[in-house]
Records
---
Amino acid sequence: MKADQTRPGRIAACAGIALSLAIAASPAFGQGTVSKIDPADTAWMMGASGLVLMMTIPGLALFYCGMVRKKNVLATMAQSLVCTALCSLLWFAFGYSLTFEGDGPWLGTLQRAFMRGTSMDATSIFAATIPEVLFMFYQMTFAIITVALVAGSVADRMRFSAFVWFVAGWLIFAYVPIAHWVWGGGFLARAGVLDFAGGTVVHLNAGVAGLVAAYVVGKRYGYGTDNFAPYDLSLAVIGTGLLWVGWFGFNGGSAFGANSRAAFAIITTHLAASTGALTWMLLEWWTRGKPSVLGMISGAVAGLGTITPASGFVLPWHGIIIGLAAGCICFWACTSLKLRLGYDDSLDVFGVHGVGGATGTLLTGVFAVAAVSAGPDSTGFSGLIDGNPGQVLVQLYAVVAVILWSGAVSFVLLKVIALLVPLRVNQQNEIEGLDVTQHGEALQ
Amino acid sequence: MKLVIAVIKPFKLDEVRDALVAVGVHGMTASEVKGYGRQKGHTEIYRGAEYAVNFLPKIRIEVAVPSDRVEAVVDAITSAAKTGQIGDGKIFVTPIEQAIRIRTGETDVDAL
């Protein structure tokens, strides 16, 4: 039984190693061209990359693990850890190239597989003043956290081996194409979709995948009857702090420069987080009688996710409006919608990131103001309030495209993985806990 | 010899310990337990999901005493642990067949 389950993994690993050695054989360092690399931009983007990686480890790891039951805390962290490690390698190998190299409408090329052909002076057309390898690394941290987000929906019950397969497959078939479409010059970018830091690519994408996964993997044993109270919300609060601050790298870094637009993005982001937290807090106070800590952090994260696509296109005070919308809509999604539709999305990935990402993407079409995104090569992008109501429809187009692709790919991928290995742990292991049964470890 | 087992509210532990020292008891075992009787639990709500928490934190202390001191010990615990509110706890007295002090090998009353 055990040998059968590791056999597909071992074959895949051998194939991967052979392929890598073949492609990476000669690291080609091309001739240096006139370097446009700006030290300030580079320094900021290095810091921003670190901030975004910190959002996954330990930000998301803590945020999630504090909310599951004690017996699954380590397993939840393992998901963030393996996402980081595996996505890093796959992104470096071919993920980056397929997303950002080449100009096909659907997918890029393998020209930059293993970053071959790059040089000390090379830059990407998408970030002309920082080293190309840094741009690749910054984008890597986005890929990592998007995949790690999906884990939240299937927490407490997904088999670790199935999850590892899912990480690899979902990165390749869901994240890479969508990122290319919106950010890599693909058909959505050409249609004029505005997504500053990942409302569609990261949040809606992960949210929809999470929803599909929650349905396919099924509800947790005892859902609705047993006590699923969070293990330690103080860990979740610490995680929220790391996410909140890290988001300044996530949104601020998406300006790809140490400039005013980055500063505006950071401020707008912070205001949205603050407003989201207050909104959820007040809604709970009103409907439940007490403002919970879980509500405050959920509201903050909802605000952060929702402002993400808009942060470099709107004015700071719009961040307050968008944060307010996020607090209200995500609150409704996590309390009402979830119960009505009857799915078990353990950590509300769909309710917060999916719904928030879609909302933020649409609101970007409303509030985009050209002055914020104007620069030497562009007059900026306008939304409804700036005289371009059609932008909202363009945004809707992106939302629909991402929902369809992410949903379909996630569904098919999970079904294919289920042919190799069961998606869930067996019921006995689920009751005993994933820490001990999947990893042989336990909190003492 | 008797084993006096008392389940009390956690914040009463120090008071009960002091009262027992006053009646000449110089050792006890305390453990953190959960329990309920007539004091019902409460509900907690996490993002739309409501859980009934029936088991409340309590402290369980165990004191081994010579039979002639049981009454004094029970009275000491009762007056120290009592608040008058529901959930004050209970005391049980059970017989001890044997007691041994591990370090010296003393038995029965000499071990207490």
---
Amino acid sequence: MTDDAAGDVVLSLEGVTRRFGSVVALDHASLRVRRGTVHAVLGENGAGKTTLMRVAFGLLQPDAGTIRFQGAVRTIASPAVALSLGVGMVHQHFTLVPAMTVAENVALGGRGRFDPRAAAARVRDVATRAGLALDPDAMVGALPVGAQQRCEIVKALARDVSLLILDEPTAVLAPTEATELLRWIRAHADAGHAVVLITHKLRDAIAIADDVTVLRRGRSVFTGRARDTDEAELADAMLGREETATNAPRVRREQPARDSAKAGGDDCIDAVRTTPVTTPRRDAAQPAAREGAPVLEATRIHVRDARGVERVRGASMHVHAGEIVGIAAIEGEGQHELLRVLAGRADPVSGTLTRPATVGFVPEDRHGEALLLDATLLENVALRDAGARRGRMPWSALRALTTEIVRDYTVRNGSAELMVRALSGGNQQKLVLGRELRDAPAALVVENPSRGLDFRATTAVRHALRAARDDGAAVVLYSSDLDELLLLADRVYAMHNGVLTETARDRELVGRAMLSA
Amino acid sequence: MTPGLESASGFLEASVRTATPLAFAALGECISERAGVINIGLEGSIICGALGATVAAGVAGAGAGFLAGAMAGMLIALIFAFFTVWIRADQIITGTAITLLSLGLTGTLYRTLYGSVGVALSIPTVGVVPLPGLAQLPLVGDAFFAQPLVTYALYLLIPLCAWWLMRTQAGLALRAVGEQPSSAIAAGVRPRRVQLAAVLFAGAMAGLAGATLVLAQAGTFVEGMSAGRGFIAIAIVVLGRWKPLGVAAAAMLFGGANSLQTLFQAMGWQNIPYQLFLAVPYLLTLLVLAGASGRVAAPAALGRRELGGS
Amino acid sequence: MLTASSTPVEQLAMAPSIARGSGAVALVVRTAGLAIAALLVLVLLLWVTGHDARAALSALWRGAFGSWYAITSATLVRAVPLALAGLAVALAFRAGILNVGAEGQLLMGAATGAALASLMGTAPAPIVMVGMLVVGAVAGGAWAAIAAFLRLRFGVLEVISTIMLNFLAQYLVGWLVRGPLQEPTRVNPQSASLPDALHLPLLLGGTRLHVGVLLAILLSVGVWWWLRETAGGFRLRAVGLNAAAAASAGRIRVGRTVLLAFVASGALAGLAGVVEFTGVTYALYDNFSPGYGFTAIAVALLARLHPLGVLATALLFGALEAGANAMQRDAGVPNVVVSVVEATLILLVVAAERWQSRSVAHAESAE
């Protein structure tokens, strides 16, 4: 490894600031990437990791700051400029054209003639040299996720890039694939290239990176050598001390969820006066009520996705009233389909399923699945169970209900006749939660409820989930953020390859169970 | 030649003649749709091309007519592109408006220029240029190789488009834009530019279609003479499965159906309702559309407004 | 932190709600702006083509509103098919269905009405009369149902299928008026003219205004009320706004709603055709519809897909077309010039909406 040598700096970002409207996504963030090294960029969701790398790749223009490439100050106006400088990026969400072959995807963006045979040969050549297995003539849409990612990497390497940026590359991969990829990244850097690895996985960073930069709220809060630090220090840097103390139990400092709810409840939950709490909050030590039959119960259910692929293979689980059950999984393990079945939005092909008539459902994709953006708050509230309604719409009752939700869930600036599009993401989410919790459903299914929300909205949403639980709802929670999951859940199932395994609420154990059945 | 062969050859010749403007328009539309833009305003480019060709040919001859036709078609396409490509307005709605605009505009200009009753307008037309050797082939010789020059240009253009689409980087980029614009952007392609070029090309082709109608067929301008050919072109693209060679074949089919009337008259079959035969290609297109599900043939981003996202 | 002051993001997000202009004033200003712009385009075109704009505009006014006869027998009579077909388009578009097949559905309605009239020539007139209206609507709905089926079963874009169905309907009419429905002398390609007893009753003596105008008003109000007040209407709107959310959050059966909306749209267009047949033309022939189904798209869009707005824009377009004929007769201005005005109006509306939603999208990117 080259981490002792000063190493010439390939890319350096200095004092980069980027605002979206009046939100500051990057606040004088800095990053120096040395040749022949893996540089891990760590941070929580929304810390600015991806934004920073989008600036480096020319997808966003900084409002302030300097970008130097090989020592020279550069303006990276577009990805085309970045590529010409030798910066390649593999996005978290693939940027492939499914209806084209691997060779066509790799060749895309060039000039002049396109010779499929030469393009295929080039792919074969690059892939072999990089040690990646890839069939150049395969249709990308038909490839498994791991192969699609190899295609993305080959696409970048084919441009002869000297710096490769990988955005959460292991998120979509099976554990063995992830290990293989990390090993490849290490080898690629050892061959003299530079790699930026954007991740929120501390362990990955420590294991293969030479340098680590931690971003929090758009600032570079930690920069150093990986071997000189440990997970605890990085976790503190990612979260900031005060937040670690009041909100999230972190690695090796786990606390019961109820405690943190209480601790956080007084000073940071300003935003929510949730549904009038009828039952007093239970004592932290007391386990959740488990009497009686489970509200939600699935036994060996199998579920197929829209394309007919079996995504859930004989999963069993049960959820009682008054508990939050967490589902831990990496991307695409069947949780998407499982949650929709539990929420009554889809049906299993086989197995037995007990679920109440109405289940509240808060999907991850608010704009796509939960809201009519160009309709009023009133109409969005009316949407719940509109499918079963007969006759006339009880608009005046619904208007009163909307006003109540706006008040109880502090949907800021909300009013019945306002377009939902005009609300911020956090307030949209509060509206969805309020709508789904309004008639105190026996069960609630929630998917990545705080994704894309700011800190205060996140706190409010978490509080609302706990309040629903305390009011006796059976809550199923999936969060791609394992820390959030462990923070909120009373019990945890890990989902791997369509199968559920109940796991102790322990980060190590859950993490391991997520990655192998 | 036997009478039967003669009428068959005549039928083929009429089919090719009818198919020529259709194929021009459909070829342009094919490229435009591969870039993700469905242009219902094609009809407008055709009728404007026809009027442009009429005016220019009257002044400066047939060659200038074709050029002016293409330019006029492109000008209308430019308006369409401003709305759909630049400000990302809905393609269907804009296309409808563009067609309406063009029909009104050409009608007004024509009556203003040539009088409201429509003076028996006579303008130079292009003659048939038999290709030596090929034109002597039995059956197909006269039909395919004794046509105006513009038809031969089409013969060249079809394989050229097919080659360009599949064998050049620009073609690759265009297909990527029609399938997954966000991925194209990430690869350094500029979707707006690509779509603008595609729409303008389609406009020029549609303008040529209009010019062909006037200069190689009717010999005069008639209000509304595009007669739905822009819409037929869209059907042809579907039937041709969004491939230039398929489009050429589909255009022949539509041309053939339109020429059956001639054949029936030649054969003395007066009682066959030819309108029903005219309907056959459309029925076929619907069936192809229904059959194509599963094996998706249409560009994935066709008609979509947003360039970002997945 | 508990104070009422909102975060910067939220302040920013308020802007579009203001820009959206829910107030009536903004709507009036906007509409007046559009009208003035369209008028300017017309004047410009007249000027370019060397016509006397003053004379032309005064002829336009006389033809549309200049006399009682002009209002009732020209403007209103022309507005009826535009209102019914415009309503058809508006209903489909509200459900997110790009039905550009109103023309074909309209033709099928007229053709079926004509067929029924020729089949039931001896039955009591009121029964045949009502029967024609019913089968006209049913035929339009059935024609639309084909496109709905193709979309739901095979995922065929309705834009493309309805274009095909327009051609099919056109050729079907072409065949009918030369075949089974041709008039008895078998000379002209048109149907036998409808006996007086089967004409839609006139509303006012001495004019051509038939009861179809009442039907159009009644249906516009009915559709407006249904969309606004009923669960079915709400479902239709929800599906049009976001089908995935309607299905997931609303547990709405999207396929069913799409089918219903498509068929209802087709039925309205079919009704437009049969009303035009029994109220105005009294016969079926090749170019029975001068593109009502396409103009209807403009009518619906200009009304911003509002059922009551459709009445107003249909009246505007009816007046434009009635006036255009007078303009051609009295001032020598080609009547097709109004197509340019109509197209300009659509394009202006489209552009205005895009700019508005752009400013919203811009604010959203702050998230």
---
Amino acid sequence: MMNWRPSLLGIAGLATIANPIVAQARIYVSIEQTQQLLFPNQRLIKFPIIVTQDLQEKMRVASSIRYPFVGERVWRGPDGSWLVIDEVVGKHEMITYAIGIAPNGSVKGIEILEYVESYGYEVADSQWRKQFIGKTAGDPVKLNQDIQNISGATLSSKHLTDGVKRVLVLYELALKELPQK
Amino acid sequence: MMRCKPMLGTYVEIQINEAQMGLTSRQIHLAMNEAFASIALVQSLMGFHDPYSELSMMNQLEPNRSLEIHPWTEKVLKTAQLICQESHGLFDCGVGRQLVYQKLLPLHQINHAPSDQSSILSIQFLGNQVICLTQPVCLDLGGIAKGFAVDEAVRALKLCGIQNGIVNAGGDLRVFGKQSHTVLLRSPRRANELIQVGSLKEGAMATSSNHTIFHPQKGITPVQGSYSVIAKECIYADALTKVLALSQDTRHPIFQNYEAESIWLPA
């Protein structure tokens, strides 16, 4: 049986319960869990890559993402599959996501690792971002302690689509041709 | 545990409490995979952006030709048609062309449906998931398919033995299980404010803002604000937000048909 108990004060717009979001962070899965989810039973080996200026520029043109791609979080599977972790930054949000790429170059799957939302700060500000980088679900920061169920006008995933574009350019121009060990 | 994937043009989040009777965490993850797969199927059947979706095939279909569709597409179309009739045309998925004109949807489909004639009511169901059209259509199922996808994800989770959880597709959410969940609404005035609007058990809530809604006949957008509907299933909550936004009537008789509640927060 559905049971809906409205909070009249909230609905009346007497938003005394209003809860300003300064920074809301949701942590979904860790890097290890992501590897298991996208490539179960495969042993991935970390494969950091150096992104040349030329490649960086090509990725920028393809995706219109201006901040540089960091090539540290890249893994390779024994069969030529890849796992790449990247971040996209919007006006109010920063999203860490993983793309699994199959040996034939198709996207095997995408998982969101973290979603950080902020108002009152520019997310793109590097100082602001730094406080979240490297955080994992095991950290004693008070993240995820009170998971909120938010309804509201749909958030667009356009930034993430741009992120996927640049990782696929990375694959085409750099990862694909790397010799198998 | 919580997982999130970019789907349906937004972020789909699934939350499952780790204590599910008789299930290992691996089984819970597999159940979540099934739920995400259901959503992916809805997207591939009913996505406007995909030129090979069943929706795109319908939008290119000439009148009096028949087309076989997936049972899920049929269910969404039938529900959309019913709500169109019950709302006297306020909810009509025939607004695809207007959304293309407003650059909210891509122009990739060749068809000859003028925007003022395209209507979900032009679909005839011939049985066995076969349809035909009385007039060309330019449909966009964006106002209902997301809710349906949430319902199918919940169904998949339950089939895998999950007893309670939450599926939230960018604001269209459904909760199931014995627990009640507090629901917050993003303020239409200030995006950094969350308003606690109530608590929900075994039900769905969907919210629409004005700028992606068009009046099927007048082509206008509703007054700015946040329009939410609570119903048993997310497909109804999702579709009825458009009726609320366009009628500006929180007591529109259609809500009774679905035992739905509505919330309108003006901007």
